[in-house]
Specification:
The complex is a heterodimer of chains A (557) and B (250). Chain A contains 17 helices and no strands. With 557 residues, chain A is mostly helical. Chain B has one domain: Four Helix Bundle (Hemerythrin (Met), subunit A). Chain B has 9 helices and 2 strands, in the order αααααββαααα. Chain B has a two-stranded antiparallel sheet with strand order 1-2. Classes of the chains: A mainly alpha (557), B mainly alpha (250). Chain A binds chain B through residues 115-117, 119-121, 123, 181, 185-186, 188-190, 192-194, 219-224, 226-228, 231, 234, 238-242, 247-250, 253, 257, 525, 530, and chain B through 24-26, 28, 32, 35-37, 39-40, 43-44, 46-48, 50-55, 57-58, 61-62, 65-66, 143-145, 173, 176-177, 179-180, 183-184, 187.
């Protein structure tokens, strides 16, 4: 790793964190619990989703421990079913869906568009409370025996054949869904109506475009999940409904309705990750994002395509060959806008002045792992290979490459990138670079063997497996322990940095977004006065011109 | 020197510039505040459409599959009550529109009158809905709770409906599918009624606040947005009425 760095910190002997900022404005628990400030709500979200991430992560550790041996040695098979179901439910609905939008998005979007707050601060707070209520219900579900439907609530398994807490789990997801609807709604309104003077659509940072696309999916998709789970709940309680074949209902209808949300949900999870990567790649390459317009529209294209591919989850469920064919084609088309993004980030780096600070390391990790995850998605989108690979560990490896290798990497990238803005202090660079590498290596050790296991035919969702698969499973479990270290490290050093980190100053990365043109941590109102956007996004020349002006100001002062 | 003083003074004046008390601090102007909240309401209604969309999709699929069961199930509904309720809701949409107009015109008396009328019409709708549901209960047409297929296996045992439609007996497996019709009937009208209950509750809140003059001082955003919600719930019914009551009449 070269010593080259773009980090420009103020003189540490004189630098101080500004006395007046959003963290110090008011004190006391109530000032946090009743806040309307998007930055405080983002902080509340950050703490809560980290909590759920570690619950979900511990469950993942239990899964990998159980799979160390071919027999069911650690837990009974039905306990294993509950463990992987809870892992899926918590990670999908309580970590991945709210991760970047509700924390980083909440924190930066109003600043990026040059507003004082999101358009609906009370709705924003309400969305956090709904999240907490839903989380409480999920913990209740877990404490009172768990649920073993998988995260997909498959009918009629979920409605008739299980005695676990399906209703409370469905209710928890229902409420969490409304939390996500309100977040998405708030973003769309803010991006439409709260932009500062001069902030045209094509001057918006690409973070905003991508989050906007994800918000559209939240607003249009999540209600369908809500009604579907309501129907599952009614069917389970009253033993009558539209999904039960015994009364003439149709289990396939459930699959259609469920995946109508849950496939777009995949893009709800990944688009905000892509949002982070656009910012990070540009900043650490010192170049405007290559093909800004193409990247912006590719986000919207992903959002549109996302609604027309759901049936690729159902190729083995007896849908007609013709619809399988069309859904297969449409699925492959989604690869186009995704590839546009990857190519454009790569071209952004081409001939850029690249430095390898931690956010950039995670971003590069994202680009590699997401590409593998995305391309294996094309395998699974073709009807023939899908029938061979579906319900095997190939699927598990595929979506973990996208969700963990992609989204989680992007989340960590974003957390490190905006950490100085959020707290006013830098994280320790060397150890965090080490954590980024550990995560990358651990991740590949954990999930790459699962591609091979899937090709060999190891089915997912079983506690036991034939002994010949053991070597690769041991590999995977060993990798998971490295991955675990990679996730624990940031918790430790980021907490450490809250007190001992170097003072970051306004703009340690010399980035161009409006959020970097205000103090760190920002004021409650974000800006002293509403900014006027008079340049394009990612205009590093503009930034260079600003610097001499600031120098002069300081000299005069 | 004098220039900078003038600038400073105008900055102070800017800071002291009186905003209406109802303008929230993070908005630049009242117009922006109205635009943003109004747009948010439209988006929320979009999510509501998707929410009901799942029910409508299920209904259309099931109806296509079990056509005879859905026809005879539909014959059990009283068109008179359905028409009355449709009329009640349309009139309530008119009174709601008049409420918004009164708020805009800052006429407190008219606002209270029309909000009150809307409330009464909303309650009337729920009352009629209760009568209809109660009738289903009495006739054992509540699937999962109080159910019998007698009316469909032997339509003549139900003379009131039989004299009007002369339905033929359904085969036992098709008669069983009428449960799907009534399940969807209760799910759809129940979800709609839940929205009505929320609306009626909000009307009480609006009425109380309107008495203090909260909406007749130029800040009518909440009345306007509630009006959008009320019309939306009305429109959902406009789709439910033909799908559940009228479609199988002839």
């Amino acid at each position: 790793m070269s010593a080259a760095t773009i980090v420009t910190l103020p003189d540490q002997s004189t630098a101080r964190i500004p006395k007046m900022n959003f963290l110090t404005k008011e004190n006391g628990l109530l000032s946090w619990l009743l806040t309307g400030d998007h930055k405080r709500i983002a902080t509340l979200y950050l703490i809560s989703i980290t909590f759920f991430f570690f619950i979900g992560g511990s469950l993942a550790a239990l899964i990998r421990l159980e799979l160390l041996t071919p027999q069911t040695s650690l837990m009974a098979a039905d306990t294993y079913n509950k463990v992987f179901s809870m892992h899926g439910l918590i990670m999908v609905f309580f970590f991945l869906v709210p991760s970047v939008p509700a924390t980083i998005g909440n924190f930066v979007i109003p600043m990026m568009v040059g507003a004082k707050d999101l358009a609906l601060p009370k709705i924003n707070l309400l969305s956090w409370y709904l999240y907490i209520i839903a989380g409480g219900m999920m913990i209740y579900t877990m404490a009172s025996g768990g649920v073993d439907t998988g995260w997909t609530f498959t009918t009629p398994l979920s409605t008739h054949y299980l005695n676990t807490n399906v209703v409370s789990a469905a209710l928890a997801v229902f409420v969490a869904g409304f939390s996500s609807i309100f977040t998405g709604l708030n973003f769309i309104v803010t991006i439409h109506k709260m932009r500062c003077p001069g902030m045209t659509w094509f001057r918006l940072p690409l973070f905003v475009w991508s989050t906007y696309a994800a918000s559209l999916l939240m607003v249009l998709g999540t209600p369908v999940l809500a009604i579907t789970l309501t129907l599952v709940g009614l069917e389970r309680i009253f033993h009558i409904g539209v999904f039960d074949p015994a009364f003439g209902g149709d289990p396939l209808l459930f699959q259609h309705l469920f995946w109508f949300y849950s496939h777009p949900a995949v893009y709800i999870m990944i688009l905000p990750g892509m949002a982070v990567i656009s910012e990070v790649v540009s900043t650490f390459s010192r170049k405007r994002v290559f093909g800004y317009t193409a990247v912006a529209f590719s986000s919207v294209a992903i959002a549109v395509f996302a609604f027309f591919v759901w049936a690729h989850h159902m190729f083995i469920m007896g849908i007609s060959n013709y619809s399988a064919l069309i859904f297969s084609l449409l699925t492959m088309l989604v690869a186009v806008p995704s590839a546009i993004k990857i190519f454009n980030w790569t071209f952004t780096m081409y001939k850029g002045s690249i430095t390898f600070e931690t956010p950039m390391l995670y971003a590069i990790g994202f680009m590699g792992l997401f590409t593998i995850g995305g391309l294996t998605g094309v395998f699974l989108g073709s009807t023939g290979t899908d029938i061979h690979l579906t319900e095997t560990y190939f699927i598990v490896a595929h979506f973990h490459f996208v969700m963990v290798g992609g989204m989680l990497m992007a989340f960590l990238s974003g957390i490190h990138f905006w950490w100085p803005k959020w707290t006013g202090r830098m994280y320790p660079e060397k150890i965090s670079q080490l954590a980024a590498l550990t995560t990358f290596i651990g991740f590949n050790f954990t999930f790459f063997p699962q591609f091979i296991l899937g090709m060999l035919g190891m089915p997912r969702r079983y506690a036991a497996y034939p002994p010949e698969f053991q070597a690769l499973n041991v590999f995977s479990t060993a990798g998971a322990s490295i991955l675990g270290v990679g996730y624990l490290l940031p918790i430790l050093y980021l907490t450490w940095s809250l007190k001992y980190g170097a003072v970051a100053g306004d703009n340690p990365w010399q980035a161009t977004g409006l959020e970097w043109q205000t103090q760190s941590p920002p004021l409650t109102e974000n800006f002293v006065e509403i900014p006027i956007m008079d340049h394009e996004a990612y205009d590093y020349d503009w930034l260079e011109k600003q610097n001499p002006a600031r120098q002069q100001e300081k000299e005069v002062a | 020197m004098s220039d900078s003083t003038a600038t400073a003074n105008s900055a102070v004046a800017e800071a002291r510039h009186e905003h209406p008390s109802y303008q929230r601090h993070h908005f630049e102007s009242v117009a922006q505040q109205f635009d943003a909240t109004n747009f948010a309401m439209w988006l929320f209604l979009l999510t509501e459409i998707m929410f009901f969309g799942g029910l409508f999709a299920s209904y259309l699929i099931m109806r296509n599959w079990y056509y005879p069961a859905f026809v005879e199930g539909s014959h059990q509904l009283k068109i008179g009550w359905g028409t009355a309720n449709t009329a009640v809701l349309i009139v309530s949409s008119f009174t709601m529109a008049m409420s918004v107009w009164s708020a805009q015109m800052r006429r407190k008396g008219a606002l209270l009158l029309f909000l009150g009328l809307t409330f009464l019409l909303g309650v009337t709708f729920l009352g009629i809905k209760y009568i209809e549901w109660h009738e289903k209960w009495v006739k054992h047409h509540v699937p999962g709770f109080h159910w019998s297929e007698q009316s469909f296996l032997d339509p003549q045992s139900d003379p009131e409906v039989y004299t009007e439609y002369h339905d033929k007996p359904l085969a036992p497996d098709m008669a069983q599918k009428t449960q799907e019709y009534f399940f969807l009937y209760f799910a759809m009208t129940g979800m709609h009624a839940l929205h009505m209950v929320i609306g009626v509750g909000l009307l009480v809140y609006l009425f109380i606040r309107a008495r203090t003059g909260a909406y007749t001082n130029g800040h009518f955003t909440f009345v306007e947005n509630f009006g959008l919600y009320w019309h939306f719930v009305d429109i959902i019914w406009i789709f439910l009425f033909p799908l559940l009551y009228l479609i199988s009449r002839y």
